[in-house]
Fold each of these.
Amino acid sequence: MSTAEMSIMFFLQMAAIIAACRIVGWLAKRYLGQPQVVGEMIAGVMLGPSLFGLIAPEAQQWLFPQASRDLLFVVAQLGVGLYMFIVGLGFDVGHFRAKAGSAAAVSLSGIAAPFLLAVLITPWLLQTPGLFAAHVPLPQATLFLGACIAITAFPMLARIIHERGLSKSPLGTLALSAGAVDDASAWIVLAIVLASLGAGAGVAITAICGAIAFVLVMTLLMPRLLAPLARAAEKQGKLSQPAFGVMLGLFMLCAFAMDIAGLHAVFGGFILGVVTPRGVLTQDLRKSLEPFVVTALLPVFFCYSGLNTQLTMVNSAGLVLVTLAILAASILAKGGACWAAARLTGQDNSTALGIGALMNARGLMELIIINIGLQRGVIEPALFSMLVLMAVVTTLMASPLFEFVYGRKARERGELGALHDAEAAPPALEAHAAPPSP
Amino acid sequence: MSTAEMSIMFFLQMAAIIAACRIVGWLAKRYLGQPQVVGEMIAGVMLGPSLFGLIAPEAQQWLFPQASRDLLFVVAQLGVGLYMFIVGLGFDVGHFRAKAGSAAAVSLSGIAAPFLLAVLITPWLLQTPGLFAAHVPLPQATLFLGACIAITAFPMLARIIHERGLSKSPLGTLALSAGAVDDASAWIVLAIVLASLGAGAGVAITAICGAIAFVLVMTLLMPRLLAPLARAAEKQGKLSQPAFGVMLGLFMLCAFAMDIAGLHAVFGGFILGVVTPRGVLTQDLRKSLEPFVVTALLPVFFCYSGLNTQLTMVNSAGLVLVTLAILAASILAKGGACWAAARLTGQDNSTALGIGALMNARGLMELIIINIGLQRGVIEPALFSMLVLMAVVTTLMASPLFEFVYGRKARERGELGALHDAEAAPPALEAHAAPPSP
C-alpha cells in the first residue's frame, strides 16, 4: 500500500467510522434511550470482524486493510489520550474529600469486591487456554481482572448525574465521590500490573520509579508552572492560541513520558488534566478540544477496538459459560457490592439501587483498560472479546436500570427533571464527554 | 519499527513539532513583527534536513525515522484538508462580485503576468536537470509554475486586512476580491494540471469529469441538503454535536472523493467549506475546528513539508541563479503586476504598492501547491526546495513592505489602527487562520 493510497483510504475510513458512530449512536439514543457513547461502542464492534467482517469479509478487508492498522492505532491512541486529558480537566478533586461515611463504604466495596471476585475466578480462567497470555503469572492476571471489574464509566456517570440535576443530591455526591475513588484505584492497579509485567526487574523498577517521579513532578511543580497561563486566561477571559499550543505540547510530552516509562499515554493525559489549574484555562481547553476529539478521534478508538473484537471466538459452550460467569461476577461484584454498601450505611433502597446501577456501567473506561491489556500482551483476543461484551452489556444496563430503580420514584417526588430533559435541550457538544467542572 | 514504538514516537514528534512552531512563531512575531504562520513555515524547514538534519543528522533520523513518514504524511493531509475546509468556510463569495473596474484589472494581471512569465522561464528550467520530473511535458510544467507564482496567501491577506480594520477601505476590498479570484484561478489551473498528468487519457477524463460533477453536485445540491442543519443551528444558537459529526463525515467524504478522482483532498475540503450555508453553522464549525487544526495538525504539515525541503540541494552557482531568477520573476510577476494594474486603474501610488505587497505573499497556499506537485511527481526535490524558499521570502516581505509603503502613511491619515493593535489585543485563537465571515 503506497503512502498516497493509505492517505486516500484514511479519508474513507474516517467517513465510515464517523458515519457508523453517528448512526448507531443516534439509533441507540432514539430507540433505547442510551447515551451516544453506548451506540459508538457498539458501532466499533460492528465495523470489525464480529459483524461487517462476518457479512462482507472482502469489503471489510478492503476498507480496513492490515497495512492501515498502524495508522488507525496511532490515531486511536491520540484520541484516547486526549480524551483522558479532557476527563482529567473535568475531574473534581473535591470529590475525594466530599462525603465521608457512605462514600468511603461504597468506594471501598466497589474496589474490594471486584478484586476478591477476581481472586476467586482468575485461577479458573488461567486454566482455559486462549484467555490470558501464556507468560502472565497469577497475581498480575488477578489484579488485571480485578481492575477490569472495578472500573466505572466515570465520565458517563458524572454526565448522567449532571444531566438530571442530581449533582447536589445524596445520590449524586455519593456516586461521584465513590466513582472517582474507584476509577483512580483501578488505574493505579493497572499501572502496577503494567509496570510489573516489564521484561525483567529493571523495567518494572523504571516504570514504578518513573511513574512516581512523574506524579510528584506533576502534582508539585506543574500547578505552579501553569499558574501564569491560568492567570493570563482569567485576565483575558479566554484561552489564547499560544497558551493552547503550550498545553497541547505539554500533553504530547506527558503522553510520551508515560508511554516510554512503560505505562501508557492515557496516564500522562489524565494526570496533566487533573493538575491543570481550574478556571477559564480548563474550561476553554475542554471547549476547544472536545468537539474534534469526541467526534472524530475517539470513534477511531472505538473502531480500532472493534477491529480486535471477535465475538465469533466465543464459539463453544465452555466459552459461553466463561463469558456469562464474567458478566455475572462483574455485575455482582460492582453493582451488587455498591448497592449493599450504600444500604448498610443507611441509604434508602431506591438510592442504593440507583448507585449500584450507575457504578456498574463500565463504558469507555473498560474499553481503554482492556485495549491496553491486549496491546501489552496481558490478555488474548478471546478474553478481550468477552470483556468487550461485558463492557457493552453493563453500560447498556445502566440507563434503563437507573430509571427503573431510582428515576421514576425520584421524578414522582419532584427530585428529578423529566427523563427526556437532556434530549429535548439542544444537544450539547459535550454530550458524551467529561463531567462539568464544579 | 513496531506499532507501539511508532505510537510512542508520534507523541514525541508532536511535542517537538508543536514546540518548534510555537517558539519560532513567537520569535518571528516578537522580533520581526511577522504573523505566526511565517514562523511556523520556517520552523518546518528547520526540523528537516536543511537545519536539524544538517547539525545533528543522527538525532534527526531518530526523531523522524523513515518508517514514521507515512504516518506524518497522513496526519499532514488531514490537517491541510481540514485547514482548507476552514478557509472555505470563511470564504466570502461576495468578494467575487464586489468592486468591478480595479478589481478585475488587478486580479487579471495577478493571473496573466505569472502565467506569461512561466511561459518565458519554464523552457529554461526544463533544461536544467533535477527541477521538473522527466516525464512532465512543457504545457503542464508551465501551467504548474504559473500557478505557483500566481497563488496568494489569501487567508493571511484577509487576516492582515481585517486586523488593521481595512476591510471596507478601497485597498481592503480591492485586495480581498483580487486575491480571491486569483487563488480560485490558480487552484483551477492546478486541478487541470493534475488531471492532465494522469496515466493516459482515461485517467485525465475521469479526473476532469469527476471534478466537474463534484462541483456541480456541491454547488447545486449541497446547500439545499445542508439547509436544515443550518436552520437548526440558527434556531439553537449553536452547532449541535450530531451536526458537527455530519459535517466532519461529509468533509472526509469530499476529501476522499477529490483524492480518488485524481485531484487532491484539499479541493474537497475547500469546496465543501464554500458551499456550506453561512451563519451559526459556519461560525461554530470554524470555532470548533480551528484551535486543534491550526495548533496541532497544521504544524505536522509544515514539518512534513520541511522534511522534504533540502536547501542544501541549491549547491551550485547555476542553481543559486535559478533560485534568484524564480524569486525575482515571482515578485515581479505578482507584486509588480498587481501594483501596475492598480496604478493604471487610478489608485494612488501608496494604495497600489500596498496591494502589490499583500498580493505577493504566498504563505501556506504555496506550500500546499508545491507539496502536491512533489507528491504527484510534477517537480523534483530541488525545485521544491527553491519554491519553499520563494514562499518563505515573499511571505516574510509582505508585512514590513506593506507597513513601509502603505501602513505608515495610512496611520498618519488616521485610516489605520496602531500597528501593534493585533498584538496588544488578546491573541485570538484564529490568529493565523481563515478570514472572518462577513
Note: The two ends of chain A are 49 Å apart (CA to CA).
Amino acid sequence: MGLLGASITSAILRSFSGVKSVGFSHRDSTRQKARQLGVADQIVDSIPDCVSDADIVILATPICTFENLFREMAPHLQPGTIITDVGSTKNLAHKWAKKYLPGSVHYVGSHPIAGSEQRGVEFARDDLLAGAVCIVTKTATTDPSAFAATKKLWADLGCSVKSMSPVEHDRIFAEVSHVPHITAAALVNATSPKNINYAGTGFVDTSRIASGPENVWADILLTNSANCAAGIGRVINQLEKLKAAIAAKDEKMIAKLLAQARAKRAKLIEHKMKSRELL
Amino acid sequence: MGLLGASITSAILRSFSGVKSVGFSHRDSTRQKARQLGVADQIVDSIPDCVSDADIVILATPICTFENLFREMAPHLQPGTIITDVGSTKNLAHKWAKKYLPGSVHYVGSHPIAGSEQRGVEFARDDLLAGAVCIVTKTATTDPSAFAATKKLWADLGCSVKSMSPVEHDRIFAEVSHVPHITAAALVNATSPKNINYAGTGFVDTSRIASGPENVWADILLTNSANCAAGIGRVINQLEKLKAAIAAKDEKMIAKLLAQARAKRAKLIEHKMKSRELL
C-alpha cells in the first residue's frame, strides 16, 4: 500500500466491476491511511487474510523483501493463484518464487515503468499506470495461461505491455536505467561542493536522477548487481577512451566519439517521438 | 556573427546610443545575412576594417581560432583597445593574448553563459544575454580599468557578472560543464543500440547534453584538456567505488554513496531556487 501498490488497487477499483481488491501493509499507520482514503475494497491486518482467497497477488514492496514474503504467504495460497510483483529487477524474484512458492501456484514477473518522486499511499493515483510501459517476464516453466492473464491485467489497467525473459529484462534495464542512475550519482559525487553552485541547466539535467531515494535504488542495484557492475565497466571504458583522446589532444577522435553519442541519442529521441513516449 | 556574436551586437544596438557596432565574418554568406537582418550598425569585409577603429573587440569564434585571429588583428589595433571574447575556456585565450597582442592593448577574458541549441546569425536574439551569468577573467597583469570596463559592458547588457582568474575558471567549468558533457557522451556510447529504445525519461534527461554539436565541444575539451582529463579521472574513481560496493553487495556502502549524491544535489537545487537561476 505504498504509492505504486495503492495506485494499482485504485486503478482496479476504477477499471473493473466484480473484482474485490484487498490491501495489506505491515505498518498499522499505512493501513489506517489506506482505509481512510478508500484506495481498496478492504484493508486487512495480516498476510494470510490478504492472500488466502486471492486469484492474483501483487507484491509492491522492495525486491529484497520478496524472499520472506513468498515464504510467509506460501502455506496460505489456493492452488491456481497467480503471484506477480512490480519490482524493477526480475531475476531474483523468479528464482525466489521457484524456491519458496508451492508448485500449485503460478508466478509471473511484472515491471510497470511508472512511479513518482513522491512516496506513500497518500500520493496514490488511479491513473498512474495509464500509458505506462509494463514489462511482463516469463521463463521456460512459466504457466502460459497465468502469463496471458497477467498481461491482460496490465493492459486492462492502461499499460502498454511488452514481454521478455527475466534475464533479458535485467540486462536491458541495467543499461538504460540502473547504470545511468549510478553514473549520475558518480558525477555528483565527483563534483566539489565549493564549485557545484556554478553548475548550469546541463548539470542539473544530467544529475536529476541522482535525487532518487537511496533505499529504493540500493534495493534495485543489489538485486541486479552483476549486470550493473558490468555496465559500470562499459561506461568506465568509454570514459577512458574520451580521456585518452582529450589528454592526447586528438581532435578527430574527440569529435568522432562525441558525434557517435549525438547520433545515437538523436535516433533514440526520434523513436520516442514516433512512439509518442515523449511529448 | 554567429548566434552569440550577432546576439551581442543586437543587444548593443538595443542597449546603447552613441555606440557603433561593427561586425565581421569570414563567410561572405554570413555577412550578407547579417546585413539583411540588421544585427549590427555595419558589417565589414575584413579584419583590419573591423578592428582598426574599435574601442573594444569581441571575439565570438571557436577558441582554437583565437591564436591566428590575435596574430592577424595585432598590427591594426589602436593603443588602449580592449580585446575580449566569449569562449567557454579562458586559460589559452589569456596565454595567446599575452603572446600575440601588442603591449599597448588590453586583453580581458569573458565567458557569458548563454547560448542555444540553434546556430547561426538568423537565430540571434537581442535578449539572449538578459539574466545570464557572465564570468570575466583577469590575471596579475590585466589592466584594471579595462577589466572594470569589460565587467560594465556585460552588466549593461543584462548579465550577472562574476570575476575570477582564467585558471580558476577552467578548473570550475571542467567540473560543472565539460566533464558532465563527457560523462553524458560516455553513457550514451556505452549503451547498445539494440536496448536503447527501452530508455525512459531518466536516461533522456541524463544524456540530453550529449546532443550538443561535436565541433563546439571538441574545441572546448581541446582547450581545457588537463582539467578535463583530471575530472574524468575523478568520475571514474567514483564509478569504481560504486562498482566495488555493488559487486560486493555492500548495501550500506551503496546507500551511503547514493545518499551523498542526493544530498549534494538537493543543496544545489536549493541554491538555484534561492538565486532564481531555476524556475
Note: Residues 166-189 of chain B form the longest helix (24 residues).
